[in-house]
Every structure is written in C-alpha cells, then in structure tokens.
Amino acid sequence: MEYGICNLAVIPLRAEPSDRSEMVSQILFGEAFEILEWKEKWVQITTALDEYTGWIDRLHVNTLGHLAYKRLQQSPAPRTYRAVTQAWKIIDNSVVYLPVGSSLAFLEGTTSYIGNQRFEIIGEIGETDNLRNIAMSFLNAPYLWGGRTHWGIDCSGFTQAVFRLKGFHLKRDAWQQALEGREIESTLTSRFGDLAFFDNADGRITHVGIVLGGGEIIHASGKVKIDTLDSQGIYSEELKRYTHKLRVIKRYF
C-alpha cells in the first residue's frame, strides 16, 4: 500500500477522475491518505480521517512512507482552530494559509515537517473545547458542496469540522453521521451540541445541523446560519416556511 499527505492548504477530492467531476470533499493541510490507484493525471485515494474515497490531481500528491503514515495514525497531529493560520514554507520563503482543522503533522515545537519540507506555524496551536465559539465562527460561510472550510462548506462538512475541533471524529456524509451517537427522544430533550438530521420525500437523510438549544439550530444551507428548530423540522424566518423535515436527533458526548 502507498500513502500520501496534503502539503497544500486544501485539495479538492472529486467523485471521478476529471476536472469537471463534482467535488465530494476536500483534504486539508497535513491530512494523510491511502493511495488506491494511479492514472496518468489522477490518483484515487481513501482519506485516513473518515475513509472517504475519491480522486485528486496527480500533481497534488506528496507521498508518505508507511512508517510515517502509521505514526500519524497512532499519534494524531495537533490541529489549527483559527479560521486562518499562517504557515511559513521555509524552502521557498512563501506563506500557506491553513484553514481551520488543518493537521500539523510531525510537529516539533512550532515547526511541522511534511516530507522534506518544513512549515513554521505562525499563530496558535492546539485544540479548543469551546464548541459554541467554533460553530459560531462559521456563521455566513457560503454553502459549497463538498466544502470543509470557512471559504465554503456543506452541512455535514460543517458538523464534522466543529466536532473534530472538539476531538470527536465524525464520518463525512450526513447519513453516515446519523448512524453514530444515541437517539434523543425529542427536540424538547435535546441540548446544545446534539445533531439533528433531516430527510427528503424518499426518506433519505440529506441534511444535518447542530442544535443550539432554545429552539434554534445552526446549519449550512445557502450559508451557515441560525434558524428555528421544532418537532417538525427547520423553520426559516427569512423564507417564512419549513425548509427541512426532522428525522432524528443524536447525541455524541
């Protein structure tokens, strides 16, 4: 098996080996992956974070040795928790702007070593347990299918990013996240940090958001925003109608 690691701010992960294919997710700085298949221009991978499979541009691949990959799996790297953290790339004296949740792989002091490249981290390092502040920092971030950053994020990317900074690793898609956690009886017994899931007319879970409490939910729909949550689902004051039908509420910690 071959492995790789992201040494760019973010790499798009596509459903098929084509620039025209939809972006299903993103790989952030310092995140590792298994390499499944090489093509002339594309490489099929599975992410170490959430076992998500897709295709990345061959030019974006930075290979990683087996022992280094295993080391990362056994000792997860610290993560950035600011919207943007600067990393000074020593080799060419340039700056990489790291999105929230980036992994500072092989960190020694304030230097992250990725292959033969060194990145000096400029900013705060570590985790924060203030889940509400993390979630609120994403307010007004635009919705982007497959996105995982403040510059564009989808509903399950949002919940995954927030929970990851709490130290809890969720799967990538809403329906996968709904398989985890324990079910909560109703919105009346839900509390801040629970996840609410919503389904479509076919009964498929297609949306997720974070319960804020007090009848409110924060979620990514058009943008990251706060709406009303009740036993029926999400009610948008802006649109004056229900936009999502509640399926289940889950608790994870």
Automatic annotation (TrEMBL):
The yes or no answer to whether the keyword Hydrolase is present is: yes
Domain named NlpC/P60: residues = 125-253
**Which terms are listed as keywords in the entry?**
Hydrolase, Protease, Thiol protease
Q: Does the keyword Protease apply?
A: yes
Family of this protein: Belongs to the peptidase C40 family.
Q: Tell me, what is an example of a GO biological process annotation in this record? A: proteolysis
Name of the protein: Hydrolase Nlp/P60
Gene Ontology molecular function terms on file: cysteine-type peptidase activity
Q: Which residues cross the membrane?
A: none
- Record's Pfam families? NLPC_P60, SH3_16
Q: Which domain of life is it from?
A: Bacteria
